[in-house]
Amino acid sequence: MKEAFRRIYGAYPDGVWAAPGRVNLIGEHTDYNDGFALPIAIPQHTLVAARRRQDGRLRLHSAQGDGPVIDLHVERLTPGAVTTWGAYPAGVVWALREAGHRPGGADLHIDSTVPTGAGLSSSAALECAVAFAYNDLYGLNLSAPALALIGQRAENGFAGVPCGAMDQLASACCAAGSALHLDIRAGAHEQVPFAPETQGMSLLVVDTRVKHDLGDGAYAALRAGCEQAARLLGLVALRDLTPADLHGAAAVLPAHLVPLVRHVVTENARVTDAVVRLRAGHLAALGPILTAGHASLRDDFRISCPESDLVVDTALAYGALGARMTGGGFGGSVIVLAEEDRVEAIGAAVTSAFRTAGYQAPHLFPVSPAVGARRIV
Ligand code: GLA
User: Fold this and answer.
1) Region 100-113: what's the mean pLDDT?
2) Which residue has the least CA distance to atom 2 on ligand 1?
3) Both 206 and 173 in a single domain?
4) Which residue among the candidates 34, 111, 167, 207 is catalytic per the annotation?
5) Residues 54 and 89 in one domain
6) Do residues 76 and 142 share a domain?
7) Confidence class of residue 212 from pLDDT cuts 50, 70 and 90?
8) Ligand 1 and 166: CB distance under 6 A
9) What distance in Å separates the CA atoms of residue 300 and residue 323, rounded to the nearest whole number?
10) Is the shortest distance between the CB of 167 and ligand 1 below 6 Å?
11) Following DSSP, what letter does each residue of 181-249 receive, concatenated?
12) To 10 degrees, what angle do helices 144-153 and 166-173 make?
């Protein structure tokens, strides 16, 4: 990273920062409903080499795009002004200004191993790596959760994606060997031990290669539906509803909102249940919770796709403990929890099922819970 930076900008960077992508174990579409989630950071991460500038210019370069250096000015950043990948790093600097900080200029060189469009939060990884870099470059003294919320603000206000805070909190706050139990309303998080490999198990990620795009309106529509349901029920957010309230809520709501609400309410309960199981050391008991979460996303929230369903069904048929789509939906990745000695057969079966169905070959890789964003050089 240091040499690449020097080739582009003619000097060495002040430092290099890293932030990981994530998979969510359970708790999908609950974050913007003030609820719970349980993500882990994955080893794939984004690196940012950065150097302070005194003149307010913000220059951006990515090893992934072969485009030229994007040349901006910190004081002239406005939403809509950058429409490429540069909107994420520029958005972070904009969000810092919006929050009352005085970030100056910088040269940034970015490289990443987080696949894009795979539902693994490549944009949150980019935002967090840049936020952590700026925090150090300009001595802002912001905490990891505060930097995560700057990343979310960048995505909402600058890149125009109305996401919740889960992805950025996962990238910023996760710890190795743990899942991150998020309580969004309380602004609280705690680490829950999660180390499948120590119990003879493995967590497999299957990237279906169906590109998902949260900016295309479907995500915003789901979020609006949940918020409308909360309003109609006189609640601040769907977080305030328990499974016991569902029957009464269904009597009040228009029919099309009922399954949305049912997903959010049962999903919050699944997160709580999963945390209890993990704290008790019953990792295998997570399996049925994952599978129930998938059914809820498929049947109630209706954001799965045939490819993701095929992964889940095939994995279960070949002995997986549980499987579900992870992330925003409409494609992206599936996670499979399985005993270590089943993983190979499951992977082969999924690949072969995709071939038979005429789908693109999926990408499969095991993940262990990795560390969150940090300075590495
Ligand atoms: C995307 C969003 C998150 C969250 C998930 C669904 O990843 O960025 O905020 O809403 O979808 O759980």
Assistant:
1) 98
2) 163
3) no
4) 167
5) yes
6) yes
7) confident
8) yes
9) 17
10) yes
11) EEETTTTEEEEEE--GGGGTEEEEEEE------GGGSHHHHHHHHHHHHHHHTT-SSGGG--GGGHHHH
12) 150
Q: Which domain holds residue 108?
A: 2-193+371-375
Atom number of ligand 1 nearest to Cα 30: 12
- Sheet strand arrangement including 374-375: 70-73, 57-62, 105-112, 39-53, 15-24, 374-375
Both structure tokens of 150: 């700057």
| 293 in contact with ligand 1, CB cutoff 6 A | no
Note the pLDDT of residue 215: 63
Residues 139 and 206 in one domain: no
Catalytic, 245? Answer no
CATH code for the domain of 97:
3.30.230.10
Distance 159 CA to ligand 1 centre (A): 15
Residues 24 and 119 in one domain: yes
Determine the Cα angle at 311 with ends 222 and 365, to 5°.
100
Any idea what the CATH number is for the domain that residue 284 is in?
Answer: 3.30.70.890
Per-residue pLDDT at 216 exceeds 80: no
Q: Return all residues near 350 (Cβ < 8 A) that are at least 6 apart.
A: 206, 310, 311, 314, 315, 362, 364
- 170 and 246 housed in the same domain: no
Identify the residue whose tokens are 């996303």.
297
Count of domains in the chain? 2
Residues 77 and 183 in one domain: yes
Any ligand 1 atom below 6 A from CB of 194: no
The more confidently predicted of residues 367 and 66 is 367
Same domain for 126 and 67, yes or no, is yes
Write down the residue that tokens 């609820």 correspond to: 35
* CA dist., res. 223 & res. 228, Å (int): 9
Residue 332: pLDDT band (50, 70, 90) is very high
Cβ of 32 below 6 Å from ligand 1? yes
Q: Which of 31, 116, 238 is the pocket-test mutation for ligand 1 (most atoms within 8 Å of CB)?
A: 31
